[in-house]
Amino acid sequence: MSSFIAPISTDSLxxxxxxxxxxxxxxxxxxxxxxxxxxxxxxxQNTTPNELKSQLYxxxxxxxxxxxxxxxxxxxxxxxxxxxxKKLNGDDLVKLSEQVAFLILKREWQKVWFRNNY
Length: 118
Known about the structure:
Low-confidence stretches: none
Order of helices and strands: HHHHHH
Distance between the termini: 9 Å
Strand content: under 5%
């Protein structure tokens, strides 16, 4: 049984999910948690990794910009580490959105990976 190694970037995470044939499960997990937060993402199963990345970045950007309470609720539901969020620099909203999207993906990937391996 291999051990979980956290990916270092969004691209490496998505390619690892594809390589392990868990990309669809990752999309399902994202859709599920976003729906639980009442912020549907509705990513179709045939979405490419680049499209997924764009959709996620845009969704996070809009939440931070216009619906901050819902954004915080989403982070809670996905279970993103508060200490990781606090380390981010919020000066550039586009960059922040990308970093938060990566943290969300990383946490969702962890859930999918563990469910698949244990």
